[in-house]
Amino acid sequence: MADDPDGGHALVVQAIRRTDGTVTFSSVWWPPAGAPIVLHETGIRDDGRSWEFRHEGLWAELVCETPFEHWSYGLEAFALRLDDPEALLAEGYGERVPFGFEMDFVADTTEPIPGPSSDIQSGRLGGLLLSDDDPLEMGRWQAHRVHWWDGDVPALAVARSADAIALPDHDRVWWVARDELGSTVALEARP
Length: 191
Hints:
Elements: E1 2-3, E2 10-17, E3 22-30, E4 37-45, E5 52-55, E6 58-66, E7 70-81, E8 95-112, E9 117-130, E10 136-137, E11 141-149, E12 164-169, E13 172-178, E14 185-190
Antiparallel strand pairs: 1-2, 1-11, 2-3, 3-4, 4-7, 5-6, 6-7, 7-8, 8-9, 9-10, 9-11, 12-13, 13-14
């Protein structure tokens, strides 16, 4: 999860490895004055050896460059620009647009999250966001990286608001919401 406090951009990237040998990959980019761009793909075949995923119209890679310190992220895909943030729960229609990024996360701090085996890192995210518009240079956005294993996914967010995107996923729905300032992304898993 990352936000740009000066420009009002918000970004979420999420990969969940499933016990059935598949991955769910999601990314939401919410420009300050535009409709959100959403990529949400379930059932991606997973070999379990790396965090590189290929699916029809999608290539994503998450690389641990230095454990607990530096990750790089890459994406080339097609996504949907949504007029209605809750559209993915209904008809799932939007305008198809190219979407991608090349970015690096560098952690400042790491803290455990109470409950399941998980931790949260605060740091900076920089690189390029790519869509049908001109590439956006991210600078060094404030960011959080959450990692969990062996247990239920921690709920990290405030309650769902009217300004939220629903990402349906197996037995739960992930809500990606903006706060009252319109620049921070919150993520919450709800059954």
